[in-house]
Design brief:
Blueprint lengths: L11 H14 L3 H20 L7 H8 L13
């Protein structure tokens, strides 16, 4: 499931798919949390890089959906 984050994201459908991957991984807290971290990092890097041809606000809104996915987040 984590492999989708290695693909080039060309638009909103890829970001939706990445959020869906985290959702499907939710039964395994550790994997889902790691995928969430990777997705957030990737989104911030892409937004900081300018994301030519992509609506950065739409991407941010999609990626923030990961916080509505229920799984245990073991943060201290």
């Amino acid at each position: 499931m984590k492999a989708i984050l290695a693909l080039p994201f060309r638009g909103e459908p890829e970001w939706i798919a990445a959020v869906d991957c985290v959702r499907h991984a939710a039964p395994d807290d550790e994997i889902a949390h790691g995928m969430q971290d990777d997705l957030l990092r990737r989104a911030l890097q892409d937004i900081a890089g300018g994301m030519p041809g992509t609506d950065a606000q739409a991407v941010a809104q999609r990626v923030l959906e990961v916080f509505s996915i229920e799984f245990s987040r073991w943060c201290v």
